[in-house]
Amino acid sequence: MTSVLDSAIFGPLFSDEEINAIFTDAAYVQALVEVEIALARAQARVGVIPAGAAEKIAKAQARKIDVAALGKGTIRSGFPIVALVQELRKQAGADAAPFVHWGATTQDIMDTACVLQVRAAIGTFKSRLRGIVQCLSELAEKHRATVLAGRTHGQQALPITFGVKVAAWLAPLVRHGRRLDEISARLFVVQFGGAAGTLAALGDKGLAVAQALADELKLTAPEMPWHAQRDNFVEFAGWLSLVTGSLAKMAQDIILMAQTEVAEVSESADEGRGGSSTMPQKSNPITSELIVAVARTNASLLSALHNAHIQEHERATHGWQMEWLALPQMIMLTGGGLKHALYLARNLQVDTEAMRANIARANDVILAEGAVFALAKSMPRQKAEELVKRACGAAVSENKPLIEVVKRLAGDSIKKGEIDWQALAEPRNYLGATEEIIDRVLKNAEKFFH
Q1: Of 202, 220, 269, 282, which has the most beta carbons under 10 Å away?
Q2: Chain centre to alpha carbon of residue 241
Q3: Which residue from 112, 93, 95 is spatially nearest to 33, judged by alpha carbons?
């Protein structure tokens, strides 16, 4: 096993088969060949090479490329393109062979092939994101009135609904979907600059070839070659870290809510999922754990992309190679994170009774703020706060509901009918703008599909 992602045992835990297929050696060679063929066609269209030569080059087949030869060639030159060109020239025949890779440089082909891989991966990411957004929207709607304890600093704070908690998982994913659309326009750009970015080998036809190449590959042409300008890839890496980080927020919440003493949710109804090798009672939140691990790893790898961004002169020395090491890993890990998040969104089990029971077990102290504001209508605010604070201690020590204790301590200071004690004792009556917030998030999510 060279890495976890390459492992037949561990790989499926952290990646997605559809994304993995984009980054196999065979898929990469296919992308390289696609770029070389598109270049020949573009140059023929502009009149740089003979049309007949382009036709012969276009018949090249990636499956006939000797991958072992590419490996040996890469060891010699540090890049696979020299060996690739040799293989393509063999397929093109003697007459067309000189026109393979005409006026291009290694980085032109490899960067553009990487853009094609990124484009394919983004198509899958969008599909996964839509699925997650759809499932979470349905979950938020279903549980818009399901009351549970909102927690701050790990402690019960105020009543919220599970629907608004899910909305908090959902909202950033919609934003990430929009961000992806925005950065895709900057990512789907052809690389073609020749040896030093001036296209000197093509005379006055260099920019025309670049545009024709972009057209062939359904990409756009940049204002100039970007050999040492890596900001678009770094921006994409930032998006990968952002989206997995947001998924991990959901996963971290699920881990905490699935604790034995809380038991408000479980990852799925699958019997045996997350089982322990020695403790029969265990149902570990393994899917959520994997998502958090993916997010933390992506956050670490992101620093490598920022370091790779620092490049010298017109073509750099080592930053490019750092991209090879980090960016594919981040893409594959993000595929795994999205896959697992989609599973959770589809299969999450919610125990509404446990949610209400946890509030009651804490003697309804999450109603303290509501009690203060209710009392403050009949007494000074500071006095109300002092009374409720004493009531919280008494409720815990006496194991009685908070509002019952507040009513007792308030005594005659509250006139009959001034406070609806029964309504005050219901957590669902202190939810503020929860309904409107959920509506806003769901409306925004609905736009994501149009």
Answers
A1: 202
A2: 7
A3: 112
Contact status, residue 427 vs residue 364, Cβ threshold 8 Å:
yes
Q: How far apart are CA 257 and CA 288, in angstroms?
A: 11
Distance CA 184, CA 180 (A): 6
Q: How far apart are CA 2 and CA 394, in angstroms?
A: 60
CA dist 320 to 27, 198, 310, Å?
20, 19, 10
Q: How many CB atoms lie within 10 A of CB 377?
A: 11
pLDDT tens for the chain, 450 residues: list them.
567 888 888 888 888 889 999 999 999 999 999 999 999 999 999 999 999 999 999 999 999 998 898 899 999 888 899 999 999 999 999 999 999 999 999 999 999 999 999 999 999 999 999 999 999 999 999 999 999 999 999 999 999 999 999 999 999 999 999 999 999 999 999 999 999 999 999 999 999 999 999 999 999 999 999 999 999 999 999 999 999 999 999 999 999 999 999 999 999 766 655 554 444 454 788 999 999 999 999 999 999 999 999 888 888 888 888 898 999 999 999 999 999 999 999 999 999 999 999 999 999 999 999 999 999 989 999 999 999 999 999 999 999 999 999 999 998 888 888 889 999 999 999 999 999 999 999 999 998 766
| First vs last C-alpha separation in the chain | 43
SS3 342: helix
Does the active-site annotation cover 276?
yes
Helical residues (DSSP H) of 259-318, grouped into ranges: 286-308
Phi, psi (rounded to 5 degrees) for 349? -100, 130
Backbone torsions φ then ψ of 147, nearest 5 degrees: -80, 140
pTM, 2 dp: 0.91
**Alpha helices, DSSP H, located in 7-100:** 11-14, 17-22, 25-46, 51-57, 67-77, 81-92
- Distance CA(327)–CA(13), nearest Å, equals 19
The active-site residue out of 3, 127, 276, 300 is 276
Q: Using CA atoms, how far apart are residues 330 and 234, in angstroms rounded to an integer?
A: 11
**Residue 41 known to be catalytic:** no
3-class SS shares of the chain: helix, strand, coil, % to 5: 65, 5, 30
CB-CB neighbours of 92 under 10 Å: 24
Asked if 306 and 240 touch (Cβ cutoff 8 Å), the reply is no
CB 333 within 8 Å of CB 4: no
